[in-house]
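Collaborator request, handled under Task 6.
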Amino acid sequence: MSPDRQPVASFDPLAAKPTRSAKHKAANKAAKAEAKPRKPDVGMAQHQKEVMDALMDLKKNEKLYRSELAAAELEFGENSIEVCRRASKLADLCYHTQRFADAEPLLRQALAIAETDAECGPEHPETAKLINNLGNVLRKQGKLAETRPVLERAVAVTTAVFGRVNPNSDTARANLVELLDELGEQEAALAILTQTVKDEEGEAESPTKNQRIAGSLRGLASVQVRMGKGKEAEQSLTRALALFIEAFGENHPATGSTMSALANLLRSEGRMEESLPHYEKLLAITETALSPMHPQCGIALKALATVKLALGKPTDAMADVERGLVIMRSMHGGVHNLMAEFLDTKASCAEALGDAEAAAAATQEAEGVREKCKQMLQAQKDAAASIDVKKMQQKLATRDNAQAQKDIYAEPLLNPTQERLRKKLASKQGEASTA
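Structure tokens returned to the collaborator:
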């Protein structure tokens, strides 16, 4: 791989998310510490407003992206690399708005251009990204039979472009493994992950070697769990945890998530006593790595309370539940499905303590929270329905239609490309009128 090649930019959920600055984290932590619980109705109203604002922004962006695509096709030609890039950008927007059927033809268009373009070709980072993204879009639509050869090709291309031991190749393989797992072909998925671990173990020493092996072991353990190989999964997770601690130390999210997976495995096997210290350590790590009021702390407290309750420690479990409820009430005014689960656990703790009245009150509140969650979901659907996205798509996609052309070019110009295109069109119209 040439040193100037850039990693594949993928919208795959497994791709790493950008980290926030220390200043932003500190400000967020301070804001959470001072935050007061909002009333549910206020939270719902605010949520609906945020959804509407986000949808309006997407509507504006989609119009811009479609106009840019139309402009590129007219100025550079339908098979130009500029069209490829704009089609890919529009496909990203469709993907993030859950319109996978709309994203598919755009990705196919972009991929067809990239494969034959002199600048890209069949083995290029941009081509690898497009193949990977097309596979994800097909999978989201449930077209699993079509997805497999695409993702297998994504693995082949990323490996050829970046090498087998590379984050981009890891992402492509992870997507294929998930698909195989979904298809019920766990043995094939297990074989890929086992080989990946061996390849990474044979890699030359580097600062990231251990954390890469640990990440692959985590994926291997997930498949082993689903195959009912609890002992092998425990070994994989134990080793991954040791490697993450060596690479990052104990107070790191990667260490915490691996510890959580190990604790969950032990709990699922009924080994509550063994899982308890892992959950306690997980809570401490989360408080240090994130903040005591972070939602992940709430999740850790709920697991801890469940284990303590199973071990016959309802008083200790209730203390964890009450603390977790404080965190949950600070999120969306307490209107959250996890809040309802906390209240269910509180009801169980109250029953174990012989307080039937408190148990009934917690159960009733849990039902109220679930109803509020349903109302909030409906509000989001209503907000989405208020914007006729499909009509807008059809209008902007029909570039041969005079009205669509007027909509695209009669508005204030949004970029230099459109400025050049307008001048070019005006010149052609002048030549035609003269003739």
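The cover message to the collaborator said: "Confidence is low (pLDDT under 50) at residues 1-28, 30-44, 398-416. The chain is about 75% helix and 0% strand. Please let us know whether this matches your experimental observations."
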